[in-house]
């Protein structure tokens, strides 16, 4: 239909023109070999790719200047930043222990060298070697580490000149090991490697000697809070909801006890945005709070803990005692806290002059203030003893143990990863201790377990019965016999 108006002569002429044009094009490349054509094609492709890459680089540079280049990749990091990120994998308490151990080591090394320079005589070649080379701790060989850390174990003292307890001495050695591993990337193992047998023998001997002197036998543990003491906290108004300061301390107390939170960091890490603690009020059911762990001491989220499941704990509303209900206290705190432009920390500073609907500022409570909450609350109620924020977690485990709750269920509440760890909270109550004392004194018989009868017991009992019968017979034959009103017949 498209060529219906074109004559046959015109079609033939157009076809001849097209063939001539194609022939002329072929003639232009008739003198160029196939290899040259392929090479030219490759060069053209490379030029195209280079131009495209330059164009993309220009676009990327423009995006970086405008702040849009971080949509996929971050700005290149320096070696120093990478080193800092590597050290950040260690918990803060571990880093603090490492620096404490290193500072103690450095002070000991300086004091030891000064002691020799001021009259200490000895043929210790390693001292001269130490003074000449002045090696840092991380550059010492395994042989030198064993030699000098063994000396350190025997000579280190507190600043007041007294000896360290055995566990503290072990912590110093572990701090030095961790520091060397972190700084020099050496996988030394002072407690297990065959290269440090001598060091372990020295450490073991010194720890035993210190234990025999009584050092470190009485370790100070945070006390659990009994039900009676908790009632005192409420009755003395150390806990309650009548003002901002008491309300936030009460919520801190209930969070620590009912969720089994650790003393410092787990309270400090609680957030307002993307919160770990959430309120659930299902229709027709009991309201409850749910704590979903993200990071903790035993669940860091790194390579070692990648297979661990973070703990999740629920606590239901207390209908029997609403004034002490965790859910009610939580709701009141959230209602009286600012909603906008506030810090992401969960615990906020109470206002000195509060309003009816706002009791708290937008600023978080300081770390030091938060760490003293439990101690100050117990002191206000007049409780005597050693109470810290860790007392709340100890209370969680101890109460559940005394009520016979299974160990595995307790571990889901406290977040312990080992049964041995949670068993450390199996502490007898004062009433139990008094009952045991009365049993030992003989003033209280107490529960007597049924005696297990053995074959020996049965045999002894039979012999006793036989002996008793013989004794009665012998007694009869040795006594005079009197017969009255009897008839005798003799045959």
Automatic annotation (TrEMBL):
Domain QRICH1-like: 98-208
Phosphoprotein keyword on record: yes
Sequence ranges of Acidic residues compositional bias: 1-11
Biased composition (Polar residues): 453-463
UniProt keyword annotations, A-Z: DNA recombination, Isopeptide bond, Phosphoprotein, Ubl conjugation
Top-rank taxon: Eukaryota
Region (Disordered): 1-28, 419-463
Name of this protein: Zinc finger MYM-type protein 2
Gene from which the chain derives: LOC106151891
């Amino acid at each position: 239909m498209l060529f219906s108006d074109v004559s046959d002569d015109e079609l033939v002429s157009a076809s001849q023109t097209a063939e001539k044009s194609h022939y002329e094009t072929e003639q232009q490349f008739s003198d160029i070999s196939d290899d040259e054509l392929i090479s030219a094609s490759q060069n053209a492709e490379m030029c195209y790719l280079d131009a495209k890459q330059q164009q993309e680089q220009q676009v990327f540079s423009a995006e970086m200047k405008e702040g849009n280049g971080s949509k996929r990749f971050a700005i290149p990091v320096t070696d120093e930043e990478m080193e800092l990120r590597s050290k950040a994998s260690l918990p803060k308490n571990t880093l603090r222990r490492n620096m404490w151990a290193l500072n103690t080591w450095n002070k000991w090394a300086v004091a030891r060298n000064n002691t020799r320079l001021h009259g200490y005589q000895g043929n210790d070649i390693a001292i001269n070697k130490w003074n000449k080379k002045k090696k840092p701790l991380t550059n010492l060989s395994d042989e030198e580490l064993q030699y000098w850390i063994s000396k350190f174990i025997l000579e280190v003292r507190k600043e007041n000149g007294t000896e360290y307890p055995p566990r503290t001495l072990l912590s110093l050695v572990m701090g030095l090991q961790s520091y060397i591993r972190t700084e020099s990337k050496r996988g030394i193992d002072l407690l297990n490697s065959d290269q440090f047998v001598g060091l372990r023998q020295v450490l073991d001997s010194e720890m035993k000697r210190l234990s025999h002197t009584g050092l470190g036998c009485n370790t100070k543990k945070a006390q659990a809070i009994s039900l009676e003491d908790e009632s005192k906290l409420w009755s003395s108004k150390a806990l309650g909801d009548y003002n901002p300061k008491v309300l936030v301390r009460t919520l801190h107390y209930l969070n620590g006890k009912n969720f089994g939170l650790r003393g410092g960091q787990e309270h400090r890490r609680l957030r307002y945005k993307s919160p770990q603690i959430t309120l659930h009020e299902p229709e027709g059911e009991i309201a409850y709070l749910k704590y979903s762990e993200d990071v903790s001491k035993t669940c860091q989220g790194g390579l070692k803990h990648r297979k661990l499941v973070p703990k999740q704990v629920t606590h239901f509303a207390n209908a029997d005692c609403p004034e002490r209900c965790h859910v009610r206290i939580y709701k009141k705190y959230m209602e009286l806290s600012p909603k906008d432009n506030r810090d992401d920390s969960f615990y906020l500073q109470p206002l000195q002059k509060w309003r009816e609907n706002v009791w708290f500022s937008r600023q978080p409570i300081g770390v030091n203030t938060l760490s003293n909450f439990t101690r100050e609350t117990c002191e206000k109620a007049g409780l005597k003893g050693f109470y810290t924020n860790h007392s709340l977690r100890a209370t969680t485990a101890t109460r559940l143990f005394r009520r016979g709750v299974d160990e595995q269920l307790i571990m889901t509440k406290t977040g312990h990863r080992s049964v041995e760890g949670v068993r450390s909270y199996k502490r007898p109550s004062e009433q139990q201790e008094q009952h045991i004392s009365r049993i030992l004194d003989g003033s209280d018989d107490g529960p007597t377990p049924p005696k297990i009868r053995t074959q020996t017991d049965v045999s002894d009992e039979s012999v006793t019965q036989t002996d008793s019968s013989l004794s009665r017979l012998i007694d009869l034959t040795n006594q005079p016999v009197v017969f009255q009103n009897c008839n005798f017949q003799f045959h």
